[in-house]
Structure formats: C-alpha cells, structure tokens
Amino acid sequence: KSLAGAQTPPAKPDPAKPAGVPAAPQPQTTAPTGTPTAESLGAPLYPTSEFLESFDAGRGQRYYIFGTNAAYTEIVAYYKNVLKNGGRTVFEAPAIQQWELGKFQEQTMAYPPSIVVKDYAWAGSQGYLFVSGTTEKRYKTVIQIVPATAPIK
C-alpha cells in the first residue's frame, strides 16, 4: 500500500504544559559588554584585581570572577575594612571567606548576593589557572561577586 494518500494523525498536546497556557518567560542573563566596575556591580573591587569572566548563575543573575596575586589574607583584610564586617569563614582549608551583599530571595535568585574570596595558593598550589585564547595566567586569590541587583550595562 502507498503512503501517499495516508493522513498524518493530529499532533498530541505536550502533557507537561496544559493547552492554552503560555510558557513562563525566562530572564535574560546575557553577558554585559566591557569590564565591570565597582559602580556597575554595586560592590567594592580590590584595586589590583583583574576581571577574568562572568557566568550565568540563572534566574537573571551572573557571577563575576576576578583574580589577583595579592595574598588571600590581604584581600580578606581589605573586604573586612571596606564592608565593615568580618564576613563568615566558609572553609578553613582551602580558605574561603564570604560577605553577604543583600538578602537572598529564593523565588527570584539562584545564588545569594555576595563576595566570596578563595585562596588558590593554599598548600603550595601554583594558583588558579585562567586561560584566555592562548594566554595562560595564574592567580593566588580569586574573588567572586554576585551583585545584589542586576548590573548597570
């Protein structure tokens, strides 16, 4: 028998989504252009830190990663002074310190707004390896910033 005259069955609705209900719009988290600043992030930046990259954290948030070859203890002392609090120790080895930048809102955020500093020179490590194209560079300390609000573009 030929299939030329056969009719195709009607499409079945997607059982995961009831008919007539539009999908919820997802927030756009496109990477901003240029190097983020303290003003655009709404958070202080260590003066000699270098912007490495940013990542989509989900729910309209981005992580911003900075590297520096200043010692971990120096970076922690800087943020303790600038933010006027000691933050909290997340881990002692390798050392990680965190400061909250705003209230975590579970319904709209994927990650708490914060500054996290990690010691990548711990136990004699050569540091965090960052590769951009064919250029490699290591950093003793890495700073991750998740802004409390969407950064200014």
Describe the structure in your own words.
- Helices cover 10% and strands 33% of the residues.
- The protein has helices at 38-41, 72-83; strands spanning 50-58, 61-68, 88-92, 95-100, 114-119, 128-132, 135-139, 141-146.
- The longest helix has 12 residues, at 72-83.
- The protein is globular.
- The N and C termini lie far apart (63 Å).
- The model is unreliable at 1-9 and 17-29 (pLDDT under 50).
User: Low-confidence parts lasting 5 or more residues at pLDDT below 50?
Assistant: 1-9, 17-29
Pattern of helices and strands: HEEHEEEEEE
Q: Share of helix among residues? A: 10-25%
Helix/strand-derived category reads mainly beta
What best-fitting shape do the alpha-carbon axes yield? globular
Q: Report Rg.
A: 22 Å
Gap from first CA to last CA: 63 Å
What fraction of the residues are assigned to beta strands by DSSP? 25-35%
What is the count of helical runs?
Answer: 2
Biggest sheet details: 6 strands, antiparallel
The neighbouring-strand order within the major sheet is 1-2-8-5-4-3
Query: In total, how many beta strands?
Result: 8
Give the overall average pLDDT: 82
